[in-house]
Amino acid sequence: MRVEIVAADSMGVRSLATFVEACGYSIGVDLGASIAPRRFSLPPHPRELRRLEQALDMARRRLEESSIAIITHYHYDHYLRDEPELYAGRLLLAKDINRSINRSQRIRGYRFIVKSGLLERGRVEYADSRVLTFEGGLTIEFSKPVWHGEEGTKLGKVLMARIICEGLSVVFASDVQGPGSREALEELLKWSRPRPLVLIISGPPLYLGGYRVGRSSVELGIRNLEVIVEKLRPKNLVVDHHLVRDPGFREVLQSLRGKAAGTGVEVLTAAEYMGLPLEPLETMRRELWKGEEG
């Protein structure tokens, strides 16, 4: 089983795009990317714009190589919203646009899957709470819809996914933000066997704490990451996405690594997992523009 993180916040764009090769299948998960239109009252730096184009090009390439594509929800950094035709040549397992979904995601999903004609000319299956088995021993399991962070958030719900092949598993838990809800944590803990080779998860949004997200929710997300280390014990715990948008992410990860010491869990950002330098460009935006002034 091979796991490649195609793009992520620690690699310079808003994304958690992942590509998995398992049991003879190529699986593209949330292959998309975006950047913040404004951050620190500043527009994207040219370096961010270049990185976005690179990330989108790689996402397209990996999608074209995929026999199976997964979309866990309809936020624009998680799918190629303007290119539904790229999904037509493969099985698409997607969040149901009719159930357990907020208005914004329902509209986006309808435009992408139905209005585009993808539902008619492609192979689309809604994946909520499903377990799918394939020839060659591949299993893909989906959680029930769980909150995009704290319980009751206006951002709606997302799916988590587990890929199993030959006794190995990879768990993808994008945008659960820690998780920021007990329900999402309980769903994850059901996937302790087989022990995950990799768990890829969005950490809590430190940059929104006390502003758009309650501080208690951010603190819960941090505590739940510690529970994941203690009880789920993935070999590699990749914590990225929302967490990395705040300079304080390093302290959170350092503390989590302390909790993981002696457990056999390695705590990493996506960039570190891929052997790349940390480049959280959104977090660095003020410094990037200051460099331009110099």
Write up this protein.
This is UPF0282 protein ACAM_0387. GO terms for molecular function: hydrolase activity. It comes from Aeropyrum camini SY1 = JCM 12091. With 294 residues, the protein is an alpha/beta fold. It has a single domain, classed as Metallo-beta-lactamase, Chain A. It is 30% helix and 22% strand. It has eight helices and 15 strands. The strands form three sheets. A seven-stranded mixed beta sheet has the order 7-8-11-12-13-14-15. Helix 6 links the parallel strand 14 and strand 15. Helix 4 packs parallel to helix 5. The chain is globular and about 50 Å long. It starts with a strand and ends with a helix. The model has no long low-confidence stretch (mean pLDDT 96).
> Could you spell the SSE succession in H and E letters?
EEEHEEHHEEEEEEEHEHEHEHH
Let me know the CATH homologous superfamily. Ribonuclease Z/Hydroxyacylglutathione hydrolase-like
State the domain count. Answer: 1
Instruction: Give the spatial strand order of the biggest sheet.
Output: 7-8-11-12-13-14-15
Class from helix and strand fractions: alpha/beta
- What Rg is obtained from the alpha carbons, in whole angstroms? 18 Å
For this structure, the CATH topology is: Metallo-beta-lactamase, Chain A
In the CATH hierarchy, the architecture is: 4-Layer Sandwich
- Give the helix tally: 8
Low confidence ranges: none
Rounded to the nearest angstrom, the distance between the terminal CA atoms is 46 Å
Bulk shape: globular
Number of strands: 15
Mean pLDDT score: 96
Give the CATH class.
Alpha Beta
**Helix content class:** 25-40%
Could you give a short account of the major beta sheet? 7 strands, mixed
Keywords: Hydrolase
InterPro entries: RibonucZ/Hydroxyglut_hydro (IPR036866), UPF0173_UPF0282_UlaG_hydrolase (IPR050114), UPF0282_hydrls (IPR014426)
Organism: Aeropyrum camini SY1 = JCM 12091
GO molecular function: hydrolase activity
